[in-house]
Amino acid sequence: MEELKINPRLLATVTLAGACPRCAWIRLHYRGDMPFQIPMPGIFISIDAYIKRLVRGSLGSAGKLPDWFPEIGKVKGMVPEDELAWNRFFRVEPDLRATLRGTPDDIFQLEDGSFHIVDYKTAKFTEAQDALFPIYDVQLNSYAYIAEATGHAPVSALSLIYFEPQTDMVHGKRAGAPPAGAWLEFRATRKKAPLAVHGRIPGLLTRARELFDQARPPKGTAGCGDCRKFAEVWGLLS
Fold first, then answer.
1. Of the candidates 237, 132, 126, which has an alpha carbon nearest to the alpha carbon of residue 193?
2. Does residue 229 come out as left (phi exceeding 0), alpha (psi in the -120 to 50 range) or beta?
3. What is the pTM of this model?
4. Neighbouring C-beta atoms of residue 55, cutoff 10 Å
5. To the nearest whole percent, how much of the chain has pLDDT over 90?
6. Is the dihedral angle over the CA atoms 164, 168, 169, 170 positive or is it negative?
7. In sequence order, what are the residues at sequence separation of 6 or more whose Cβ sits closer than 8 angstroms to the Cβ of residue 194?
8. pLDDT tens per residue, range 147-168
9. How many domains does the chain have?
10. Residue 182's domain is classified under what CATH number?
């Protein structure tokens, strides 16, 4: 049985209700992406990295989180970044011959010894973001599932931290902006995610394993846009 290597976002994408089975099978066998998928713009990766440096720098130098950071409980420290790296933060499921591996944005240790996992999102919290919440929910619970196996337990809370760009204008200028240069402020807003690790993740991993083991892709969902794109590309190649 071939080993299944899967990350939290892919686990959510291929197993949640409404996912097209055919597209899920393709994603599991093709690096987690669709062949025509556009990668995430590098600017968002840069912003996430900058936020992490700000947060860790403040906790290291001032002994507290930045004043603009949402309330997440009494924090006494953070899990070192190298312990959250791809080659260390994973969980092996021998019975499924599967490895769940990912890199959470940050994990805080609270004063009671428990851990609070957060994921940063550079976006306004809109209805479109709300529609993506089930994916983020599985991601965070997957991180908690991995954390249990890597010595970062118990996990007591999961949160999304939205960094929303403030774009209100006054007479054609950004309110409060410095007199020269372009300037953009981000406001941090927290959204809690329910902690339901063992009630969800093992079952989703089993579902992903079943899809992965199918010798041929299953029938797609009627009206699936990605299936239509595949058919059009195949038609051109044929």
1. 132
2. alpha
3. 0.91
4. 22
5. 71
6. negative
7. 137, 158
8. 999 999 999 999 999 999 888 7
9. 1
10. 3.90.320
